[in-house]
């Protein structure tokens, strides 16, 4: 007998994520459970799921630590793996349902809007070389999320989410859009670094005697 909590017909990824508050009723949920609900869609579903926590407002250091699983998934994509490996401690670590629902409130409206534009395009991306390039690019974007700098966490997360959605829905154009957002995230990080250097230089000149 089908579980009445699950969607009655195939849903888009955004619609499925929107139903998580209904699917998961317990106080905590694990990464393994979330991946099981998304189904066997390879590393793309894992990339999406491990990126979602980046949309929850968190202190700077904690958000950087939460980006470690993103880098692990992206590295496996770059290496050409088709199945996910993550430490059991990560797969079974309990996640508070309230935090997951909060993340979905940030994320789902973006996904539902993007999904209106999605259709299968640019099949060349799914060649072995294309997927490795995408994986390597995602790894680079994930490294930005690991960098403990202000204002640099949300854009890499959005970029990786868009890439993952494009992979799940087989839309190469959306994948490229996500990678373009990743370039914008890299530019923002460089701008923040130069801004901090400039501010530090001015402060140093201000306190240094003539």
Cα-atom radius of gyration: 19 Å
Mean pLDDT, as a whole number?
79
SS elements, strand count:
2
Total count of domains: 1
Name the structural class: mainly alpha
> How are strands sequenced across the largest beta sheet?
1-2
Parts with pLDDT < 50 across at least 5 consecutive residues: 1-10
Tally of alpha and pi helices: 11
Helix content: 55-70%
Write up this protein.
With 210 residues, the chain is an all-alpha fold. It has one domain. Helix content is 66%, strand content 3%. The protein has eleven helices and two strands, in the order ααβαααααβαααα. The protein has helices at 13-18, 20-23, 31-38, 43-51, 60-65, 68-78, 88-92, 97-115, 128-146, 154-168, 172-207; strands at residues 28-30, 94-96. The chain has a two-stranded antiparallel ribbon with strand order 1-2. α4 runs antiparallel to α6. Mean pLDDT is 79; it is low at 1-10.
Give the gist of this structure.
The chain has 210 residues and is mostly helical.
What layout of secondary structure does this protein have?
Elements lengths: L12 H6 L1 H4 L4 E3 H8 L4 H9 L8 H6 L2 H11 L9 H5 L1 E3 H19 L12 H19 L7 H15 L3 H36 L3
Antiparallel strand pairs: 1-2
């Amino acid at each position: 007998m089908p579980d009445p909590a699950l969607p009655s017909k195939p849903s888009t990824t955004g619609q499925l994520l929107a139903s998580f508050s209904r699917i998961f009723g317990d106080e905590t949920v694990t990464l393994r459970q979330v991946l099981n609900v998304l189904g066997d869609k390879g590393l793309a579903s894992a990339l999406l799921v491990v990126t979602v926590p980046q949309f929850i407002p968190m202190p700077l250091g904690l958000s950087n630590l939460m980006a470690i699983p993103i880098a692990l998934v992206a590295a496996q994509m770059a290496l050409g793996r088709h199945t996910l490996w993550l430490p059991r401690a990560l797969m079974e670590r309990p996640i508070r349902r309230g935090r997951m629902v909060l993340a979905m409130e940030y994320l789902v409206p973006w996904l539902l809007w993007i999904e209106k534009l999605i259709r299968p395009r640019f099949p060349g991306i799914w060649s072995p070389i294309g997927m490795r390039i995408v994986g390597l690019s995602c790894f680079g974007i994930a490294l930005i999320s690991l960098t403990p700098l202000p204002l640099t966490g949300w854009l890499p997360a959005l970029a990786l989410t868009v890439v993952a959605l494009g992979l799940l829905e087989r839309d190469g154009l959306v994948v490229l859009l996500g990678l373009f957002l990743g370039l914008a995230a890299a530019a923002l990080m460089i701008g923040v670094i130069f801004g901090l250097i400039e501010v530090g230089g001015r402060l140093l000149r201000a306190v240094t005697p003539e």
